[in-house]
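--- STAGE predict ---
source: upstream dedup step, 1 unique chain passed
mode: sequence only
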Amino acid sequence: MRPFLFSILIALGTASAAGLAHAQDATPHSDAAGKQSATGERRILYYRNPMGLPDTSPTPKKDSMGMDYVPVYADESGQGEKQSGTGEHRILYYRNPMGLPDTSPTPKKDSMGMDYLPVYANEGGQGDPPGTVRISPGRLQTLGVRTEAALMRPYAVRSIRATGSLQFDERHLAAVTTKVSGWVEHLAVSATGDSVKRGQVLAEIYSPDLVASENEYLVAAQLDKSIIGASDQRLRALDIPAGEIERLRRTGKASRRIAVVAPANGIVVEKPVQEGMRVEAGEPLYKTADLSTVWLIAQVQEQDLGLIQQGEQVSATFVAYPGRTFTGTVDFIYPTLSPETRTGQVRIIMPNPDGALRISMYANVQINASVGNQPVLAVPSSAVLDSGRRQIILVAVGEGKFQPRTVRVGARGDDWVQILNGVKEGERVVVGANFLIDAESNLRAALQGFTDGAKSSSDQSKPAQQDVTQ
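--- STAGE serialize ---
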C-alpha cells in the first residue's frame, strides 16, 4: 500500500505544479497583451527551480523529483519596466558580486548564495572612458561613499618627522692645555661635571721654563728697561695670566707655581690630569663644554631633505620629559647621505637654559617645513590610490558616475596632497570607500576591454572568411 500511496502523492504533486504553471502562463498572457512585441510571443529569460531553490537553467529541465522548472518571462522580471524605447536599460550580463572575473548570461548565485549583479547597457555611458562606474544612490549610502572638492590651498607648512640625538655644540667646546712641560702640584677643579667660568684657576703647575722666563723678566727690568717689552711678550706667549705678570712687576719675585685658567664658561666634560702628574706641552689637562645650547642631529629621510631650509622651526620630545616639548631652529643640512639608511643629517640648535637636555638623549623630531610660497591645488590624502607605478583619483561626474583618472602628485602635507595635473579646481573626488569603487572600475574596464577585443577579433575574421569562400 505504501508504494501505491507514494505514487499517488507524486502524481498529485506533478498535476498541481502543472496546473500552477498553466495558471501562471495564462495570467501573464492575458495581462501582457499590451506589452508583447509585434511577434506576439513572450520572451523567456530563464527557468527557475519549482521549489524556490537557488537554481536556474537557460533551457527547460526537471528537478530531482521530476517536476518541470518554471519559465520566467521578460515582462515578469521587471526588465520591461526598465527598458526604454532605445533599450538603454537592457541587461547585458550578470557579474560576480565579490568582484571576481566571472559573468553569466542568466541570473545565478555564487558559492555563498549571493545573487549575481545585473550589468545594464547604459551603465558605462556613451563616450565614457574605460572604467567608469555608475552606482545607485542607495548603494552609495550603503558603501559610505564620501566626496570632497579639490581646492586651492594657500602657502602651507608640512610637518616632517624624524629621529635624532643630542650632541655637544662644537662651537662651545674648549681644551685646556699648557705650552710648557711641568708637574701638576695642585688641582683647583678635580672632578668631571664641575662648572667653571672664564678666567677661573683650574690647576697650578711647576715648570722650570716658566720660572726661568719670570727671572729673565725681572733681570731685564733692573738692567735695561728697553728690553722688558720682549720679556713681557714671551711671558704672554706662554699663556702667563695678565694678573701674574702684574704681580711679578709689583713684587719683583718669581713664583714657583703658575696658574692654568679656564678659557671659557662651561662644565668639565673630561679631566685626564691628576695631581702630581707630569704634563707635556700641548697635552690637554681639561675639556670643557658650554651646555647653554646643544646640537640635535636629526636623521631625515631622503625624500624630505629637499623641503627643509635653514631657520625653520623644530619641536622635539624626549622620553625623559613626557609631555614637555622643546623648540629649536634648523642650523645646517649636512651635504652627505648615509648609503645604508638613505637618511641625511640635519643640525638643529636647541637652547638649554636650565640644563635639562643631556648629551646622547634620544629625540622624536618634528620639522615644520614650508611647502612653496604660492597657492597649490590639493586634495585629501585619502583620495589618492597609489599603486607604486601610478596614482589614481576617482572623480564624481554626477548622476552616480565615477571616473578613474591618473594624476601626477607633488608635495605632500599632513593630510593633503598637491595635484599637478589630472584634476581641476572644484571637481569632487572620492575620499571614502574609494577602494571599493576602484575595484569595481578595474573589473569593468577589464570586462570592457575583453568585450572590445572579442568584437575586434570577430570583425577581423569576417573578411578572411569571405575571402576563403570566394
